[in-house]
Write a structure and sequence with these properties.
The structure holds two protein chains of two kinds. Chain A is of the alpha+beta class. Chain A is built from 19 helices and 25 strands. Among the domains of chain A are: 241-336, ATP-grasp fold, B domain (D-amino Acid Aminotransferase, Chain A, domain 1, 2-Layer Sandwich), CATH 3.30.470; 340-369 and 510-528, no CATH class; 375-508, Glucose Oxidase, domain 1 (3-Layer(bba) Sandwich). The chains are: A alpha+beta, B mainly alpha.
């Protein structure tokens, strides 16, 4: 088996079929000189055999990991799990077609107690070192060892309450140190925790391969007709740290608005955080305006990178980035999932801007049912009770359901459903599929689950701080107005508004855009192949 | 007989090294809290200079909580030091970093009283002072982390520890110069009394914190040299 190395001057491109689309795009970005942390890839070809626990495949994996780590050590000048200058890595999935948030990722791998001391030794930043250690334990414990993530959340909530602070971000270094110890105890109650970084890495890589067979990944492939995919690759990348201070952060950005189709970037960033905090949908991030005020150079570089990537890949891009002490790193890029409305607008704008020919625009609209493409608005709703962030445009009217199981049950009885959840989790993918729309208390437009909602064409509103849910009592409050499961709600995913009651949906077809599509279709094939500018 | 005695001595040395490591880990914990306070003040200065809102009262409350926590840690450390009859220099390190934390908490308190309408330019010289305090706290943690490894006999650890001591002293020099720049700006300008006094007090508290950290550096150097000659 041969691993693929990315970054540190390696400019070779690779096929997504072999290394997954994430790694193929990473190699592409590195080749055009964008700032990409070095990485190596264990190929798709190994996935099936690892899932089947074939001992020879596990040997190949171990050899690949050894070779890859020595590449990363050379590229970064750090040593894996070292107590003085430690290299930590992320272990990410990546199939030939993107499956956002459906497969597993393990972060901060190699953060043993010795490496955590090494992080302190390198930076003098105790909070950062403890934060990396507790993040590693949470990620490794839940993904690799199969512990219930809720156990870690309980420990975290307990520490936040005991310290009398608002959230995990406000915990000081001493509290984070104790939290990391509590996480370790949580794990050691059930498992023997390996302190050998290579052993951690092998286990993490196998777990990521095995996530190919998880329920949510299988459901997603079925819903999205991706059953032909052969498996996932595993990308092991040198960690860059968005949680190393206030001039660091992590975020997700789209080169254009994937919800409305507007030709403006959408950027979400969380300072002093790691990427998982944004895409998990558990926190409300800051916007591009805040980034531009705090780190204007990074904001400008990010916009330039988005434009470059859109041009390079010829389509709207969805990127993950990290800022480490004021330096921008791009961790991944992929073609953005979009609502049908956005797909139509992108197609027309890209032709207008001379980026693609009408024929290509028509090809991109192949999967979109243009006859059913209507812009909708709500009427007879009264005043909005709750305002959140519109994450996926469109309107919906349905009965409230507070979890995926109830959403599926209600939908099966023929009732339209609005799924109301505390956060946007990809574990709710079945509930998304059954619902007409989704509303969450926290989360970002760029969270994985919001992205899936867009892809399914479901209106989605996130970050509704005036909404609270009591799952135990099966009740919720919309701006202090109590609601229960089965109550009618109306939502507008573009405006980010939620109404109590059964509003009327008024439909309007985007006639001008559809007329343009019809004209392209009527053109002789030769003319449709030519770019307009 | 001799073999048994050597064995006992080796066990004793290992035990003492473990105790010393445990005590130095407490000092690192204190340095971590010092950095939290210094970074918070730096954030306050950054936000105010940019004209953005900053919840000063909440920050001052949080700083107070951190300082109280640091006090408890110091009391516990002294008890452990007495119990194990550890090197007096470690107690000195605990005391000096506790003093630095007190000064930083005082600075956070003063920061909470800086008038909201203060001219952002008056805050400019404070940026370097905050940097010096953050870098000082970081150097203290790095120095102690490296010093804890010195008994294992790798030269790189003593070199790193002594380099961190150098950075602590540099930070104090930079803070001293920056504090003078603040004083000169205030005395040569035409500022209202409340603004001038609050900025001057803030600068002095920050400078005193770096002073304590420089003192910490001198004691740390003595500790490392003693370990090397042991």
């Amino acid at each position: 088996m041969q691993i693929v190395c990315i970054g540190d001057g390696v400019a070779q491109r690779h096929s997504p079929e072999d290394v997954g689309s994430k790694a193929a795009n990473l190699a592409h970005m590195a080749a055009i000189g964008l700032p990409v942390p070095p990485a190596f890839v264990l190929p798709v070809a190994l996935c099936d055999a690892i899932v089947q626990r074939d001992p020879r495949a596990r040997e190949h994996l171990a050899e690949g990991v050894m070779e890859g780590i020595s590449f990363l050590e050379k590229a970064t000048g750090r040593l894996f799990g070292d107590r003085r200058r430690p290299l930590l890595v992320s272990v990410r999935s990546g199939a030939a077609r993107s499956m956002p948030g459906m497969l597993d990722t393990v972060l901060n791998v190699g953060c043993t107690p010795a490496a955590a001391r090494g992080l302190l030794r390198m930076t003098g930043h105790q909070r950062f070192a403890c934060d990396c250690r507790r993040r590693f334990l949470e990620s490794f414990g839940s993904v690799v060892l199969g512990l219930d993530p809720a156990q870690f959340v309980r420990r975290l909530d307990g520490m936040v309450a005991a310290e009398g602070v608002e959230n995990a971000q406000a915990l000081d270094s001493e509290a984070l140190e104790r939290l990391a110890l509590a996480y370790q105890e949580e794990i050691e109650d059930h498992h023997l925790l390996a302190d050998d970084p290579m052993e951690q890495l092998r286990a993490a890589a196998e777990a990521v391969y095995r996530s190919w067979g998880s329920d949510r990944a299988t459901t997603y492939r079925k819903v999205e007709h991706l059953e032909d995919l052969r498996g996932t690759a595993v990308t092991v990348q040198a960690m860059v740290f968005g949680n190393s201070g206030q001039s660091s952060g992590a975020g997700v950005a789209f080169s254009r608005d994937p919800s409305t189709g507007a030709a403006e970037p959408v950027i979400d960033v969380l300072f002093d955080s790691q990427g998982e905090d944004v895409v998990s949908g558990r926190r409300n991030p800051d916007t591009e305006q805040v980034l531009a005020r705090r780190l204007p150079e990074v904001a400008a570089q990010l916009r330039a990178a988005l434009m470059r990537l859109e041009y390079e890949f010829g389509d709207v891009q969805d990127i993950e980035f990290t800022i480490e002490d004021g330096k921008l790193w791009i961790l991944q890029t992929r073609t953005a999932k979009r609502t049908p409305q956005a797909a139509l607008r992108f197609a027309i704008d890209f032709v207008k801007e001379g980026l693609i020919a009408p024929k290509e625009a028509l090809r991109r609209l192949d999967g979109v049912n243009l006859d059913r493409l209507v812009s909708q608005r709500l009427a007879d709703t009264g005043v909005a009770l709750v305002h959140g962030i519109g994450a996926s445009a469109g309107v919906a009217v349905g009965r409230a359901a507070f979890d995926s199981a109830n959403a599926t049950r209600l939908a099966a009885s023929g009732e339209p459903v609005i799924l109301i959840r505390p956060d946007t989790s990809t574990a709710d993918v079945a509930g998304f599929a059954a619902s007409e729309g989704i509303v969450t208390v926290v989360g970002a437009r760029t969270a994985h689950a919001a992205l899936v909602a867009r892809q399914m064409g479901k209106p989605c509103i996130v970050g509704c701080s005036e909404l609270s849910i009591d799952l135990a009592r099966r009740s919720a409050q919309l701006s202090r107005m109590p609601i229960k499961e089965g109550d009618w709600l109306s939502i507008d995913g573009e405006a980010g508004t939620v109404y109590l009651g059964r509003g009327k949906i008024i439909e309007q077809r985007p006639e001008t855009e559809l007329a343009q599509i019809a004209r392209w279709r009527a053109q002789p094939p030769e003319a449709a192949r030519v770019r307009s500018a | 007989m001799r073999l048994a005695r050597d064995q006992i001595e080796a066990d004793l040395v290992r035990h003492l090294q473990r105790v010393e490591r445990m005590l130095l880990a407490i000092v690192i914990r204190q340095a971590g809290l010092a950095r939290e306070l210094a970074a918070g003040i730096a954030q306050f200065v950054g936000e105010r200079r940019a004209g953005r809102p900053f919840d000063c009262a909440a920050f001052a409350r949080r700083a107070r909580q951190i300082e109280e926590k640091a006090d408890r840690i110091a009391i516990d450390a002294r008890a452990q030091i007495a119990r194990f009859e550890a090197d007096a220099r470690i107690e000195h390190l605990v005391n000096l970093i506790e003093d630095a934390i007190d000064e930083l908490e005082q600075a956070a308190f003063v920061a909470s009283l800086v008038p909201a309408e203060i001219a952002p330019t008056l805050l400019d010289p404070l940026v370097e002072l905050c940097e010096a305090a953050v870098h000082g706290a970081e150097a203290a943690a790095i120095g102690v982390a490296a010093a804890a490894e010195v008994p294992e006999g790798h030269r790189v650890d003593s070199e790193d520890a002594l380099a961190a001591v150098g950075r602590l002293i540099d930070a104090e020099h930079k803070a001293d110069a920056a504090e003078r720049a603040v004083t000169a700006k205030i005395l040569s300008g035409d500022f209202d009394l409340k603004s001038a006094l609050s900025v001057l007090e803030l600068a002095r508290a920050l400078e005193r914190s770096t002073d304590r950290l420089a003192g910490f550096g001198h004691v740390l150097r003595a500790h490392v040299l003693a370990d090397l000659s042991a």
